[in-house]
Amino acid sequence: xxxxxTHAFVLLPGAGSDSWYWHRVVPLLRERGHEVVPVDLPYTxxxxxxxxxxxxxxxxxxxxxxxxxxxxxSMSAFTAAIAAERMPVDGLILVAPMIPAPGESPGQWWSAxxxxxxxxxxxxxxxxxxxxxxxxxxxxxxxxPADVVDEAFAHEQPGMSEAAFEPAWRAxxxxxxxxxxxxxxxxxxxxxxxxxxxxxxxxxVEPEVIDSxxxxxxxxxxxxxxxxxxx
Length: 231
What we know:
Layout (H helix, E strand, L loop, with lengths): L7 E5 L13 H5 L4 E4 L11 H12 L7 E5 L2 H9 L6 E5 L10 H8 L1 H11 L10 H5 L5 H9 L24 E6 L7 H12 L4 E3 L5 H4 L1 H8 L3
Parallel strand pairs: 1-2, 1-3, 3-4, 4-5, 5-6
Helix pairs in contact: 2-3
């Protein structure tokens, strides 16, 4: 049955992904009567940058009947912050996010926040080799059901243009809208202590923790949908 109060959501994929990332969450929101628009961002276009991506989000927002909540996975937290300066929104929900600071670019973020050091510390603490070659299955899909992993690797993913990591976010401060952060307890890319620190320092909020890795929309879609709706 639809919820008594319905909402609109615009869902942004993370780097190197597309709207397919949200395919397990979208029906859970729609069956409750909510408007949902998952977007594809032009990650492969060498002439498109974060401000171009924000234009796509603003355009998608015109397809819903009310100011939407922007739900941004990982790097698209940058895109959502820019879009929220350009359109009316009900709020932002940043999932496993690269939480930006004004004046920072996605390319600068990694070293600015100490991501490599945080990841190495967690790898050592959990018994993984911090110097092992990158294994996307182990890093991103370790808690995703096997059939969904197979589907993900069969699904053609967009390549990433270098422009995706530019430019710096040209803003003096965060937009004056509500912001929530959802962090994965078992995120191997952005360890929970890192996201907790950034949420507190950059947004003044405590993250809500989901029992997943970096891809909760694939690993825990029902739990993520409930968190989006605060059920």
